[in-house]
From TrEMBL:
It holds the Pfam family LysR_substrate. Residues 1-58 form the HTH lysR-type domain. The keyword Transcription applies. The keyword Glycosyltransferase does not apply. GO terms for cellular component: protein-DNA complex. Belongs to the LysR transcriptional regulatory family. GO terms for molecular function: DNA binding; DNA-binding transcription factor activity. This is HTH lysR-type domain-containing protein. Keywords: DNA-binding, Transcription, Transcription regulation. Transmembrane segments: none annotated.
Length: 290
């Protein structure tokens, strides 16, 4: 169905006069008459009928007018949205691991909005473990994710954007609790609560223990760092976790890891195989400069 014919039909339905409608549309009256005739032939019903010197809608015309106006309104909305996107506005869908969501990502988003206060930009925020975030990124659910390094993901582009401190946590009554810093070798004799393989932190902690040349005594495994902290607070073992404010509220002992040396980074990850809207590209460039 010809889109212009729909617009001509709606204009004529409102004006109800061929000459005036043609003038408003900047076309000739024969062109308008031809368009309406073609539309009626395609639909198989008359849309207009003469009523004296004016033109009125038939019953079929009144019904079709509602559909035509809705169609044109939807199309107009889509055109405006596409133009906003092309102008660097629109929605940015973020996914991130929980530690990055405490301060880093919210601060980034707020300052980016402040820097672009004259633009119509919005965010959505979701959290999850690294494996889930990366899967959802590849499915197109997110535009950008902040997580652990995506090993072996050739279609993804990962840029390190933030360092994160790891700490050993224990019960306040634990033999290690009074230490301000620790060589991780000293923790090997105690039951350890570990991240599951679905967590991006698993590889980070494993690499840390590999540097000691020994393996920890894994008592329990779970995916979320906050759950691990809760288990430690209730005496199920000790753990290596990213530093977070929650630890102070749980009353656990927080011990700095002096040895071995480590580097825990948060990566900004995008899918290079999927078109990146201008507003997302602008945000990524801002993060890299941040």
């Amino acid at each position: 169905m010809n889109l212009f014919y729909l617009k001509y039909f709606v204009e004529l339905a409102h004006v109800r006069h061929y000459t005036k409608a043609a003038q408003n549309l900047c076309i000739t009256q024969p062109s308008l008459s031809h368009a309406i005739a073609q539309l009626e032939n395609e639909l198989g019903v008359p849309l207009f009928e003469k009523n004296g010197r004016n033109t009125t809608l038939t019953r079929f015309g009144r019904e079709f007018l509602v559909c035509a106006e809705n169609t044109l309104a939807t199309l107009d909305s889509g055109v405006k949205a596409a133009r906003r996107s092309a102008a660097g506005e629109g929605l940015i869908r973020l996914g991130f691991v929980r530690p990055a969501g405490v301060e880093y990502v919210p601060r980034l988003a707020r300052e980016f909005l402040e820097k672009n206060s004259g633009s119509d930009i919005h965010f959505t925020f979701d959290t999850g473990p690294t494996v889930t975030l990366l899967d959802d990124l590849k499915r197109g659910r997110y535009d950008v994710v902040f997580c652990s390094e995506p090993f072996g993901e050739t279609q993804l582009t990962a840029v390190p954007v933030s360092n994160q401190e790891l700490v050993l946590i224990t019960l306040a009554e634990h033999p290690l609790a009074n230490k301000k810093s620790i060589n991780l070798d000293e923790a090997l004799e105690y039951p350890m609560i570990y991240f599951t393989r679905e967590s991006g932190m698993r590889a980070v902690v494993e690499e840390l223990f590999e540097k000691t040349g020994k393996s920890p005594k894994i008592a329990y495994e779970t995916q979320e760092d906050q759950v691990i902290a809760g288990l430690v607070a209730n005496g199920f073992g000790i753990a290596v976790v990213p530093y977070m404010e929650l630890l102070h509220r749980l009353g656990v002992s927080i011990i700095k890891i002096a040895k071995p040396q480590y580097s825990r980074k948060i990566y900004m990850v995008t899918d290079s195989s999927i078109y990146m809207p201008p507003v997302v590209e602008k945000f990524c460039e801002y993060v890299k400069m941040y």
